[in-house]
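ok trying again, last paste got cut off:
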Amino acid sequence: MRKILVISLLFIFLFPVLIFAGDEPEKVDPFKEIDALYFSRDEGDNLELYYTKLNELLKSNPNDGEVYWRISRYHYWKGKLAKEKSKKVTLFETAQEWAEKGIAKEPKNPDVYYWSGVSMGMIGNTKGVLKSLFLIDPIKKMMKKTVELNPNHNGAHHVLGVLYRKIPGFKGGSKEKSVKELLIAIKLKPNDTLTHYELALTYIELKQDEKAKIELKKVLNEENPSDPIQAKIDKRKSRLLYNKLSLK
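nice, full thing came through this time. structure:
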């Protein structure tokens, strides 16, 4: 009887160990807090804190492409905030450099290619299309590589959509291709306000103002945007453009 009691007590104490011994510890996403800082980057020092934490993470993860593209994104946003043209170009060039470092470290990561292409696009946009025609093919290459690695990457289709609208026809520009790519991007991420706004601009160039107004209203009515800070800008611009179209 005593032997049975001892075995029973051992089983009781060991039972929790037997249950949990096979469980894997819950994986902590190191980027969850960091990304939260980026998506509230207009509050206090959040943008700089975002950058600081990424640099801390880089020390322990020197080969992680996820760190590199996020640092690229930081310089991209700083470039958008800059007032002087030369400062903008410098920051966008730095953003591209970090994305390229990410490509070297983790060539299977789609977002390092995406942010390299985005940075090139911003450099071209700042300098002017005619001064940046040599960037068109490299940007396309980066976006196609992004989609190859992640077919559901809405951002790559967004960039291609904007690119096809802005570049001249002799370099492959096409408003119809622009619409097609932007619609794909919207299907993949319906709450991206910037894509709806860019689609509205393409529709306007196609003389399809009513379709443009529908896209602008989607921006204005979006309650859960994928990027709340960008959405504030998009909503303000969409309201002005919608009112302008309504007065025609």
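cool. The mean pLDDT is 91. The CA atoms of residues 59 and 129 lie 38 Å apart.
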